[in-house]
Structure formats: C-alpha cells, structure tokens
Specification:
The protein is mainly alpha-helical and 170 residues long. Helix content is 67%, strand content 3%. It is globular.
C-alpha cells in the first residue's frame, strides 16, 4: 500500500472525530509491538480495517461510527499470536481472540451493543455466529480483505527476494 493511502484516514475529519480517543489511548498504541500479518503491526492492521469498514458503511449503509470504533478494537487481544500457542497451549487463536479482544476493549472503552457484536463476530465464518448488522459485515469483510493483502505482500516478498538477491552473472 502506498504511504499516502495508508494515512488517508488522518485527513478524514469525520472519521477522526469518532475514533480519536481510541487512536490516542496507550493500550491501543501498545498494539504496535505485535505483528499481525506479514510485517504489518496489529495497530496498523486495525486502523486499515477500521477505515475500510467505515468507508463501506458510508457508501453502502450501516452504522459507520460503530464500524470505525469496533474496527480499531477488533483485534485488541494484546499478545503475539505467533507465539501464543507455544506459550499458553491455546492453539485456537482464530476462534478465541474475538472474545479476548472484547474483554480488553470493555476494560478500556465504553462500547455500544453493536460495537461489542462487531468485535465478537468479526471472524465469521470461522466463528459460528455471523455479524448481525451491516457494520458488522463491513468489518468482517474489511478484515478478510486486509488480512489477505498483508499476507500476500509477505508471500510475494518471500518468493521474490531470493531471486532479487542473486548476483547478476555476465
């Protein structure tokens, strides 16, 4: 993703007004220490998911405020999921992290019922109950889209780098 597109959300005053408290909170900022997919931090992933979900709702309908706020908090599980299974024995991060994120989000933020629902159900269809609102579906789709982009970027780099690192033979 181009740097200008990655920070586009900062210039969206309406978006920033509804999420500023979360973006500035130390717990949200701490998500920068965890890698989510590829080389993307959990914090950056959540920002991208939040803003894309917000844009979906603005364009197609849905509670864009709930999408923006819950999108920032959907992965607030606060651990490195790459080592979590080895350290805890919990091998089901994909199934369990929405509940962990919700518990953490409720500790630090006042959430609407819709925001709670979005966080808890964002991993559908991996988790059995689908989102119940348009904003929930927007975040679920945005999460899948960004996760794919972040993972594919990592794979492309992994595949291309060995060939690029080879010395040119003349």
């Amino acid at each position: 993703m181009e740097p200008s597109a990655a920070s586009e959300y900062v210039n969206d005053q309406e978006y920033m007004e509804c999420v500023k408290d979360i973006l500035e909170h130390p717990v949200f900022q701490s998500m920068d220490q965890y890698i989510q997919h590829g080389t993307t931090t959990c914090k950056d992933h959540c920002i991208q998911v939040s803003y894309l979900g917000y844009q979906f709702c603005k364009r197609f309908g849905g509670n864009w405020r709930s999408a923006a706020r819950a999108g920032l908090l959907h992965d607030l599980f606060l651990y490195d999921w790459h080592t979590h299974a080895r350290e805890t024995g919990n091998h089901f991060h994909g199934f369990t992290h929405p509940r962990a994120a919700l518990v953490n989000a409720e500790k630090y933020f006042v959430l609407s019922q819709e925001e709670k629902d979005i966080i808890l159900r964002h991993m559908w269809p991996l988790t059995p109950v689908p989102p119940s609102t348009r904003a929930g579906f927007a975040i679920t789709c945005a999460d899948k889209a960004w996760s794919t982009v972040e993972t594919v970027e990592r794979i492309v780099h992994w595949l291309a780098f060995p060939f690029m690192a080879q010395p040119v033979r003349r």
